[in-house]
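Ligand-bound model needed. 2-phosphoglycolic acid.
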Amino acid sequence: MRRPIIAANWKLNMLRQEAHDFVVAFLSELNNPTQDASLDIVIAPPFTALDATRQALTASNVALAGQNLSFESSGAFTGEISAEMLRDAGCRYCIVGHSERRSLFAETNTDVARKVRALLEADLQPIVCVGETLDERESGRDQAVLAAQLDGSLEGLEPEDTRNLILAYEPVWAIGTGRTATPEQAQATHAFIRNHLRAGPLGDQAKTLRIQYGGSVKPDNIRTLMAQPDIDGALVGGASLRPDSFARIVRFDQPENTPS
Ligand code: PGA
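Prediction:
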């Protein structure tokens, strides 16, 4: 049984006070969040709001994540943040290889693999993102692209690393566009990813790997996505910026008046 994991990716949003106010409102929206052990909830603020978010989350079981890190551990790397620094700031997870980092900041699969290694060595759990562009999907190259991203980004991984690893399938054409993959499309791709990793580095441990879907996840589509057998959670951008909508997502709520 894979425990669901829902993560908020705040990207380049949220000042410290806004992060604090979000957490207070979000926790009050949830029923008894300290007791709810049925799923993992994660928030990834920008670095500058990590501490304010951590303080506001004290006494809840909502975990903190970084959005990126350096694969270097220390030294003359101006502007960088190490895995150990993230752990020191209270993080348990870190997003790696998000498509915005790959496309806007030229991050390669090799960079991602080094970051995954740095996180695992620091006892943090990487949330490794993969996903194809619309052009790649429409030209039938999506599986080859995903396979190359998985092989490159997870190079050197051992089956026992699986329990500390989370994958996020985020089709680039669905991120921030309002165009979600259908539950069937997402399920088919998640099954492909799991089978690919099972035949490769993770072996049978791939059955226990948690794979999130990301790309225009909203309160009104979370339930059908989570009903798919290989979808184990969600990585949420835009809809995680409002406490009420993120609370509805972690409760798998449908909006009022929508038949379930
Ligand atoms: P979105 O972003 O939910 O706004 O599409 C998801 C992501 O980029 O992780």
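The chain has a mean pLDDT of 94.
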